[in-house]
């Protein structure tokens, strides 16, 4: 579904990532780890076409990103749910409207979809917060709302960038549980995190591949994790 | 396709751009002002065109024969001139002005009590031409032979600059309308650029969730177009109201009394709001495409 082949990415004259090859097969679970500034977020952005590689190839659903225009990338992104650490909401819209935003932009704002939205709000435990504005939410609520928005289009792949960065242990376990559930539904999950305890907790529940970015390159993490 | 997208109601798309009262009011005010000016420029241009045509037609079909002679010869020369005019092809009617009519012509300058009969006044003959007109050079030759004191004034001398001035005024009106449209486009572009730059985060979020450029641009284009349409409609209504209440200067007002719309011309100001909206649509779309490309 998402495939990176010998990808390099340079910015401001320096190379951030070198010779990265990665394939995200259906229903697989991956962690991407590494120190702060190693390039985890950059790699995730390459995976959903927000950045274009300066070398190698990124293929989204068998199409080379460099051959796609902005609209084609945007349409491909409807099959990829993205959860950011800072959530990226539109603060003037309610939680429900933010979660439904992918439906609105893809013209799928039907009655059925609204029913799914209510179900989804219940799944992430935000039924009572549907009309609240994003700034009124706690950190955990924001992350759950971001996850709900990422999955509302029933994407094939979910990419999460430090999804538990701003929440306590209990909430991070709850978010992890939601992501594991999604994986069991057949979704491919890639989580960028430096939270090793989260990785250990996940490995007790799913078979997860742990990748590490070190010295601009991607490698399989050791078995100590 | 653009218009279809504009007319299609998409409440969700409209709501993705945060409301901005200040920018909205400024855009509406600018659109209203520009529409107000455009309607006046239109009225000016149409009036000038109408006046140019009326003056041209009226003066083209009339001329004056002035007979200056000693009082004892004036009647004979007038009769001779009338005979010449009666046999001149292209002259529909020739009529000597009465003493009262000549006095009325001088009244604006000398007042109503002027004793015309005691003054050595020339006799004026009002000539109305047929649509084909007469040969003025031929008539002058005949008059010089038969009525030595006659001077033919076919109004050409002062008709041309008047008609030219009215035509220039009409052109100036149309140029003004063009400039107003261009200025409206420039203002909307600036406002749209500012709104797009201020909403960079909104654009980032929309792209993150899979919005195409057309969807993002559409949200801004719809908003600016509808604001402009509303503002221009208000400005047009005010301008029409102002024209309707312009004081009637009557015939003495000449050109000034003619500023406004007549007949089917009243439809033309109604074109101003949709035209302004069209300018806004294309200006915002161009701005959005440029900014979205830069934000890649």
TrEMBL record, chain A:
CC terms in the record's Gene Ontology section: plasma membrane
Gene3D superfamilies: P-loop containing nucleotide triphosphate hydrolases (3.40.50.300)
Domain of life: Bacteria
Keywords: ATP-binding, Cell cycle, Cell division, Nucleotide-binding
Pfam families: ABC_tran
GO molecular function terms attached to this record: ATP binding; ATP hydrolysis activity; transmembrane transporter activity
GO terms for biological process, alphabetical: cell division
The keyword Cell division appears for this protein: yes
Residue intervals of the ABC transporter domain: 2-225
Keyword ATP-binding in record: yes
SUPFAM superfamilies named among the record's database cross-references: P-loop containing nucleoside triphosphate hydrolases (SSF52540)
PANTHER family: CELL DIVISION ATP-BINDING PROTEIN FTSE, IMPORT ATP-BINDING PROTEIN
Protein name: Cell division transport system ATP-binding protein
TrEMBL record, chain B:
The ABC3 transporter permease C-terminal domain, residue ranges: 175-289
One GO CC annotation: plasma membrane
InterPro entries named among the record's database cross-references: ABC3_permease_C, FtsX
Transmembrane parts of this sequence: 26-46, 171-196, 202-221, 228-246, 266-284
Membrane-topology descriptor: Multi-pass membrane protein
Keywords noted in UniProt: Cell cycle, Cell division, Cell membrane, Membrane, Transmembrane, Transmembrane helix
Subcellular localization, as worded in the UniProt entry: Cell membrane
Primary localization: membrane
Listed GO biological process terms: cell division
PANTHER family linked: CELL DIVISION PROTEIN FTSX (PTHR47755:SF1)
Protein name as catalogued: Cell division transport system permease protein
Annotated source species: Puniceibacterium sediminis
């Amino acid at each position: 579904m998402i495939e990176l082949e010998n990808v390099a990415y340079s910015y401001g004259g320096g190379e951030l990532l070198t010779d990265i090859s990665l394939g995200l097969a259906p229903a697989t679970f991956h962690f991407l780890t590494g120190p702060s500034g190693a390039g985890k977020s950059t790699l995730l952005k390459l995976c959903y076409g927000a950045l274009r590689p300066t070398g190698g190839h990124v293929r989204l659903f068998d199409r080379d990103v460099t051959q796609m225009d902005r609209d084609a990338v945007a349409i491909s992104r409807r099959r990829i749910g993205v959860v950011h650490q800072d959530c990226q909401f539109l603060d003037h819209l309610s939680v429900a409207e933010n979660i439904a935003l992918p439906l609105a932009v893809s013209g799928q704002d039907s009655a059925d979809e609204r029913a799914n939205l209510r179900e989804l709000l219940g799944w992430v435990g935000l039924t009572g917060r549907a009309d609240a504005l994003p700034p009124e939410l706690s950190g955990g609520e924001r992350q759950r709302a971001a996850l709900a928005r990422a999955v509302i289009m029933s994407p094939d792949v979910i990419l999460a960038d430090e999804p538990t960065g701003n929440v306590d242990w209990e909430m991070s376990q709850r978010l992890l549980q939601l992501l594991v559930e999604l994986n069991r539904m057949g979704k491919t999950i890639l989580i960028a995190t430096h939270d090793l305890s989260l990785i250990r907790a996940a490995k007790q529940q799913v078979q997860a591949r742990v990748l590490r970015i070190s010295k601009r390159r991607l490698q399989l993490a050791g078995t100590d994790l | 396709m653009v218009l279809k997208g504009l007319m299609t109601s998409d409440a969700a798309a409209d709501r993705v751009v945060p409301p901005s009262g200040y920018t909205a009011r400024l855009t509406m005010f600018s659109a209203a002002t520009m529409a107000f000016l455009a309607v006046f420029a239109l009225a000016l241009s149409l009036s000038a065109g109408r006046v140019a045509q009326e003056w041209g037609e009226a003066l083209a079909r009339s001329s004056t024969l002035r007979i200056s002679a000693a009082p004892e010869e004036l009647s004979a020369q007038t009769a001779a001139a009338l005979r010449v005019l009666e046999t001149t092809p292209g002259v529909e009617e020739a009529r000597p002005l009465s003493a009262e009519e000549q006095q009325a012509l001088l009244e604006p300058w000398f007042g109503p009590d002027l004793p015309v009969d005691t003054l050595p006044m020339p006799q004026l003959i009002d000539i109305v031409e047929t649509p084909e007109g007469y040969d003025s050079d031929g008539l002058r030759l005949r008059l010089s032979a038969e009525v030595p004191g006659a001077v033919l004034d076919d109004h050409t001398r002062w008709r041309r600059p008047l008609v030219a001035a009215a035509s220039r005024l009409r052109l100036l009106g149309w140029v003004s309308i063009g400039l107003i449209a261009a200025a409206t486009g420039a203002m909307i572009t600036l406002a749209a650029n500012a709104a797009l730059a201020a909403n960079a985060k909104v654009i980032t979020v929309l792209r993150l969730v899979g919005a195409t450029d057309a969807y993002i641009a559409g949200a801004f284009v719809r908003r600016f177009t509808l604001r402009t349409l509303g503002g221009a409609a208000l400005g047009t209504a005010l301008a029409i109201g102002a024209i309707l209440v312009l004081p009637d200067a009557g015939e003495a007002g000449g050109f000034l009394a003619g500023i406004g719309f007549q007949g089917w011309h009243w439809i033309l100001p109604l074109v101003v709001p949709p035209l302004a909206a069209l300018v806004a649509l294309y200006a915002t779309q161009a701005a959005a495409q440029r900014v979205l490309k830069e934000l890649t």
